[in-house]
Design a protein that fits this description.
Elements: H1 5-12, E1 16-19, E2 31-32, E3 38-39, H2 44-55, E4 59-63, H3 69-78, E5 82-84, H4 91-101, E6 108-111, H5 118-121, E7 126-129, H6 135-138, E8 143-144, H7 153-165, H8 168-176
């Protein structure tokens, strides 16, 4: 993976990554059953990227405008403790999280796909949108992923951060290790 020097310099500083859900962790579609049950699809490689990133020492949070039990369940599965749901104006939740964490803005990365993400995207150290993010967002972020929402954008960002911080190889070494009899 070739990483632009400017993006790598920003990614080296990241201690906390915040993600939107719809259009970032999912394909931006909502599915409803006849009885009104909402479902979403999550990409497992994105999930594993988050697991590796957390093991590398970068924590993760989620701020989403919608509220659903499935997102809470996914966060529980991935051991994501910082979850803000049902917040269409995301900036107050972001500022609350920054205050709780005691981090500098350049130590925070954010991945968002729509204009409601712009108040956060313009404040963080590394701002990213998926390849299918809104044009108004694409023109205002540090990096436009080569992947669309729900299909690898989060994994790519996690790998960019880990590679820039020199922690990716430890995960490769773990999976490529020789097992002794």
């Amino acid at each position: 993976m070739q990483i632009d020097a400017n993006i790598a310099a920003k990614a080296q500083k990241i201690k906390f990554l915040i993600l939107d859900v719809d259009g970032v962790l999912t394909d931006n579609r909502l599915y409803y059953s006849d009885d009104g049950i909402e479902t979403k699809t999550f990409y497992t490689r994105d999930g594993h990227g988050m697991v590796m990133l957390k093991k590398s020492g970068v924590d993760i949070g989620i701020i989403t405008g919608r509220k659903s039990q499935l997102v809470a369940n996914r966060c529980r599965d991935l051991k994501i403790e910082h979850l803000y749901q049902g917040v269409p104006d995301k900036l107050p939740s972001f500022l609350d999280l920054v205050s709780k964490l005691g981090l500098e803005l350049d130590e925070i990365g954010y991945v968002g796909d729509d204009i409601l993400d712009l108040p956060i995207l313009k404040r963080v150290g590394l701002s990213v949108t998926p390849a299918d993010g809104e044009d108004e967002v694409k023109s205002r972020v540090d990096y436009v992923s080569k992947y669309i929402g729900g299909k690898g954008v989060v994994r790519e960002v996690c790998e960019i951060i880990m590679r820039s911080q020199g922690t990716f190889q430890q995960h490769m070494d773990f999976y490529l290790r020789d097992l002794e009899d």
